């Protein structure tokens, strides 16, 4: 007997709490919103059951990625607050110690 199941659990935006809240960790797009979301069980691509998510998440409007706000790269400070002599990670743009070979925040090599 062969059983074919087409469905699964997806996330959908319920309500936007703050627009332009950060940058995407995948595509680096600035079109990221802080949202409340629902988890949706779909069976044969038809929503069957939905329940609310536990805490707000960041949602990228370009690549449709949901991620926790703690993973979001920091917003770039105004030019007056930039420190030019401190090394920065080229991926997450955080200030690093000069002797670091890997970023402790995102794990990329420097």
Topology:
Blueprint lengths: L6 E16 L9 E12 L2 E7 L4 E4 L5 E2 L43
Antiparallel strand pairs: 1-2, 2-3, 2-4, 4-5
What is the overall silhouette? Answer: elongated
- How many beta-strand elements? 5
Number of helices: 0
Write down the secondary-structure element order. Answer: EEEEE
Structural class: mainly beta
How much helical structure, as a percent, in the residues?
Answer: under 10%
Low-confidence segments, given as residue ranges, are none
Report the portion of residues in β strands: 35-45%
How would you characterize the largest beta sheet?
A: 5 strands, antiparallel
Structure description:
It is a single chain. Strands 1, 2, 3, 4 and 5 form a 5-stranded antiparallel beta sheet that branches. This protein has strands at residues 7-22, 32-43, 46-52, 57-60, 66-67. Helix content is 0%, strand content 37%. A hairpin with a 2-residue loop joins β2 and β3 (46-52). The relative contact order is 0.17. The protein has no helices and 5 strands. It is mainly beta and 110 residues long. It folds into 2 domains: 7-70, no CATH class; 78-110. The chain is elongated.
């Amino acid at each position: 007997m062969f059983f074919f199941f087409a469905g699964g659990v997806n996330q959908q935006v319920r309500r936007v709490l703050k627009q332009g809240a950060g940058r995407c960790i995948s595509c680096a797009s600035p079109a990221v919103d802080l949202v409340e979301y629902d988890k949706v069980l779909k069976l044969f691509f038809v929503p069957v059951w939905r329940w609310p998510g536990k805490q707000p998440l960041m949602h990228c409007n370009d690549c449709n990625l949901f991620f926790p706000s703690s993973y979001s790269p920091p917003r770039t400070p105004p030019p007056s607050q930039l420190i030019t002599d401190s090394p920065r990670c080229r991926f997450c743009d955080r200030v690093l110690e000069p002797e670091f070979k890997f970023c402790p925040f995102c794990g990329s090599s420097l």
